[in-house]
Design goal:
The chain is of the alpha/beta class. It contains 14 helices and 15 strands. One of its GO terms (biological process) is proteolysis.
Length: 503
Amino acid sequence: MKKLILLVVLVSALAGNRLQAQDPVAKKYGDLITSSDLKENLSVLASDALEGRETGKRGQKMAAAFIKAHFEELGLTGPVDGNSYYQAVELYTSIPGDIYIKAGQQKFTNFEDVVFYGNGDSGGEVSLPLVFAGKGRKEDFDQLGSVENKAVVILVESEENFRDPMAIARERKARMVLLWNNNADAFKDLVNQFKSYLGGGALSLKKPEANSASSGIFFISTATATKVLNQPSEKLLKATNEDTKKGALKKIKPTTLTYKTAMDVKVLKTDNVLGYLEGTDKKDELVVVTAHYDHIGKKSGGEGDLINNGADDDGSGTVSVLQLAKAFATAKKEGKGPRRSMLFMLVTGEEKGLLGSDYYTQHPVFPLEKTVVDLNIDMVGRRDPQHKDSAPYVYVIGSDKLSTELHNINEAANKTYTNLLFDYTYNDQNHPDRLYYRSDHWNFAKNNIPIVFYFDGIHEDYHQPTDEVSRIEFDLLSKRAQAVFYTAWEVANREQRIQADKK
């Protein structure tokens, strides 16, 4: 009996730690991911010739052709209709026209005194009652009574801190929202950032409706807030900080807001690029590996280097996906292919709002219920200042959010093969950068598909022309790509499909 108990314990221990001993087959194909191949591909994708790979522009189409050729060479299948590697994504770009708000006869214009964020065309001037809703909390709105079909001004600490107030305003059926930033320097930076980002047009998957007077928000400065509300800022701030039971906000006399948002809507065509590798006995289940191959294009105006090459963001993730595809495709050619099918997908429009992955999950080529996991690679070629002198590391985000099983597999695979320092700083849902919601894995996670997001952190060259191939640490990049490979290998080949945790 004692021997039987000991045998059961040993078998259980081996089963629970089956990744602790290296699988020589996995190791053979993981070793195919090399720094030299990564550099060769990235030197093309992040070259000046591709002009920063802006969504829908010539350089991005060149990148798509390069990726497609790579998939063809590997023998991957094009899984879209007609065996195409391209999933066509039609986007709508709303180019700002005549946009302003008025207080009396004074006009406040877009990208100067105010910033309009949205794609709605108001169909001419619109006039609405305007009320001050303090910080936009539920108790602030409760002071005001109904705000249906009214415009509201909400004081926010930064442009990042408006989601909850916005949700409450929309829930209360406010027709237009003005977000007041009381920091003059921060507002000036905001104007410059949005002018660069939105001046050429905001992109969306949904065609903007004509005469959509409530589709969008205005960011406004303190000077603008005092004019449209006809009150000194001191009085507005005092009312905001008063005990809500005193009803100070209700005592701020309503005014009238007049605004206009004119938009020129154009169609922009782009593509997700997909390479499919069929599995064996579990081929109906799918493991997805993603990165985004778009970047932000060229700077407008100025001197010197104007091309944002995006070597790290996300050229590094794109070439990692290509190398994982090579490793799995080679394994299949040699009779060691994955049991589950693999989809290697380079998505478009991430920089414009996760649009390509959003489109895919709304129009999946393979059923989402058969999709086991998404392993998303977005910026894995550099070090951030926090890890300047650390051991080789990578930030891991979201692995435990939906599946404890996936988290444990990812940890075990790393300890067995690559031994990177896994940093979970950004995995904290209270972290102000909210990175769990800011890359393409999020559109899979929204559909209850377990994910892991691999990331190297924010560095000084983020979204700058200096994000170049010469600054990539290719040995570190190859080790990170291998870490993703070994987790993908285990998920694709294990007997039981990993499961999302029960809620």
